[in-house]
Amino acid sequence: MIVELWRHGPTEGTAAHRYEGAGTDCPLDIAATRAALSLSPRASLAPQRVFASDMRRCVETARLIYPDTPLVLRRNLREMHFGAFEGRGFEDMEHDGAYRRWVDSGCEGACPGGEDKAGFTRRVVAEVLAILEEEAARGSACAAIVAHGGCARAVLSELARPRIPYFSVEAPPAGRWLLEWDEDRFRVLAAPGEEVPCTWL
After folding, report:
1. 118-133 pLDDT, tens digit each
2. What's the DSSP call for residue 8?
3. pTM for this entry
4. Contacts by 26-34, CB closer than 8 A, 24 or more apart
5. Which end of the chain has fewer CB atoms < 10 Å from its terminal CB, N or C?
6. Burial of 165 (0-12, 13-18, 19+ CB in 10 A)
7. Which of 170, 190, 159, 157 is nearest to 41 (CA)?
């Protein structure tokens, strides 16, 4: 199965480098997203359904990319919940002790009032595996998922072969990964900004 995995487009918060997670349901910057999508190499996939996080920025991105395809919203595709760090930028928190401890842990610990990376990763990976199982049962040759940057990192760090370290996954706004799913792993056919292999055009 061929899968297009998208990160939502730019928002005011992404431009300002603020933490926008499951606790921040902000709107999309439509003009900036259209501009970003115009630069993205595309495969001519025709998924039967598009799966998306139920957060506004993902719903609006999905409707821009796949305007005529039924949209299925999944709460478990939401970004990590950053708790007390939601809506704040790293420069604003450089002297915040809780934030410094979280960063010094490699961002592994739980955000105060939010999630930890391990739990977040389990949630998102389980949801993506459920989507792939559903689409395989329907006989789908392709699938599309529109979620968040953290979701792309979680999925690719756990399911891509060869493995990609979590923080090595580049996740630009409106970025798209073209993936091939083979029973228990993803093979990356194209990462954001890369040309789509001609066999899929």
Report:
1. 999 999 999 999 999 9
2. -
3. 0.94
4. 26/56, 26/57, 27/56, 27/57, 27/60, 28/56, 28/57, 28/60, 28/61, 30/60, 30/64, 32/173, 33/8, 33/9, 33/60, 33/61, 33/64, 33/173, 33/174, 34/64
5. C
6. exposed
7. 190
Place of tokens 């606790």: 23
Q: What is the pLDDT of residues 22-37, one digit of tens each?
A: 999 999 999 999 999 9
Per-residue pLDDT at 78: 98
Token representation of residue 54: 């139920």
| Spatial CB neighbours of 190, under 8 Å, sequence gap ≥ 6 | 41, 43, 176, 177, 178, 196, 197
| DSSP secondary structure letters along 152-199 | HHHHHHHHBSS---GGGS---TT-EEEEEE-SS-EEEEE-TTSPPPGG
Residues whose CB falls within 8 Å of the CB of residue 40, separated by 6 or more in sequence, listed in order: 174, 175, 176, 192, 193
